[in-house]
Amino acid sequence: MEFQDCFPVWNKLTPSQQALILGARTERSVAKGTVLHSGGADCAGLLLVKSGQLRAYILSDEGREITVYRLFDRDLCLFSASCMLRSVQFDITIEAEKDTRLWVIPADAYKQVMEQSAPAANYTNEIMAGRFSEVMWLIEQIMWKSLDKRVAAFLLEEVSIEGEDRLRLTHETIANHLGTHREVITRMLRYFQNEGMVRLARGAVELLDKERLRAVRDA
Amino acid sequence: MEFQDCFPVWNKLTPSQQALILGARTERSVAKGTVLHSGGADCAGLLLVKSGQLRAYILSDEGREITVYRLFDRDLCLFSASCMLRSVQFDITIEAEKDTRLWVIPADAYKQVMEQSAPAANYTNEIMAGRFSEVMWLIEQIMWKSLDKRVAAFLLEEVSIEGEDRLRLTHETIANHLGTHREVITRMLRYFQNEGMVRLARGAVELLDKERLRAVRDA
């Protein structure tokens, strides 16, 4: 996969705009667990995922986390370059959830192109609108969905990302994704286990009855 | 206040772009309580507030509400023109919270200008980033703040918007802003009243001790 293939508007940029971005971008490989961006002060640049997986989350004062969105192949992360947009006033942390290869585009180069190019600015707009939609979905989940539905939805999503029914996940990790406490997740998973929907092992959750988990999720 | 004064990038548009928007926009007066936009299918156009106040909220299947953001003089509402952005995939309702005068810019006219003009597209980007920040703030409130802090913050914000300490608000209305049940709000307000922070009357809440309410909010 080439860098250019990840930009739907690449051909609408002028040769000098293309050269500016190609000259400025760098390629990086990061290990699972690496924090690529944290908080508002940091301006790491835009991150374009070549392969792997990133997670964007917010942190409470007490160190609790909640996952806001994830980035997969070809996804572009804007908020790691929050200095580019004056109106971005929140602190987000971006972490590699798997070993990841990515391109970094410095914020000033991207901003310069975006200020000149209506296609680049509109493309950026669409990406932000997409993230906005994910965040609105999250608010609906938090506000209106009970935790059993959220845990079932999370497990089913993980299985669809990982492609296997046995997930290597601690209760702590699930709690951090969903913004709750480990004890609460443990209680819920034990309930699912008693109902025959999952099997629990140290550091792993195996989905035994996805049909019923879907029924919980969609109830 | 002129229409043009509300667009910081007005002078960066070409005369034909300016003419397109001026020719397409209409002016409307709506009474308090009017629903201007509801759900994803509707594409009322962009709303630019001349005077008054709008509220954007989401609705659960059971009819519960939560306020996502508000719009005041000169604020531009993008999501009432969600057909303009492919990636907007959530349903929001926009309602006049006071008698409001506003301009409506049809989505297709605005979109046409935004596709040609980098300044217009970047301006739109900044507006969306600002709303995004408000929504992220809301998630933090919902996730990490207890309801006493949220009610105190809401009452103090209302007083600063209204400019007076006696607020005409039902408990139902407060519950709808904060995405909770009326009974929960009633209990909290009675607690505040017992502590001497507010006085309750039919359809009204009077703030007696803003100092202490601020202390609750910031604790």
Can you offer a commentary on this structure?
The structure is a homodimer of 219-residue chains. With 219 residues, chain A is an alpha+beta fold. In chain A, 42% of the residues lie in helices and 23% in strands. Chain A is built from seven helices and eleven strands. The first copy, chain A, has helices at 15-24, 107-116, 118-144, 147-162, 171-178, 182-194, 210-218; strands at 26-30, 35-38, 46-51, 54-59, 65-71, 76-77, 93-96, 100-105, 166-167, 198-201, 204-207. In chain A, strands 1-8-3-6 form a four-stranded antiparallel β-sheet. A four-stranded antiparallel β-sheet of chain A has the order 2-7-4-5. Chain A has a three-stranded antiparallel β-sheet with strand order 9-11-10. In chain A, helix 4 (147-162) crosses helix 7 (210-218) and helix 5 (171-178) crosses helix 6 (182-194). The longest helix of chain A is centred in the middle third of the chain and has 27 residues, at 118-144. The A-B interface holds A 58, 60-62, 64, 66, 68, 85-90, 92, 114-118, 120-122, 124-133, 135-140, 142-144, 179 and B 58, 60-62, 64, 66, 68, 85-90, 92, 114-118, 120-122, 124-133, 135-140, 142-144, 179.
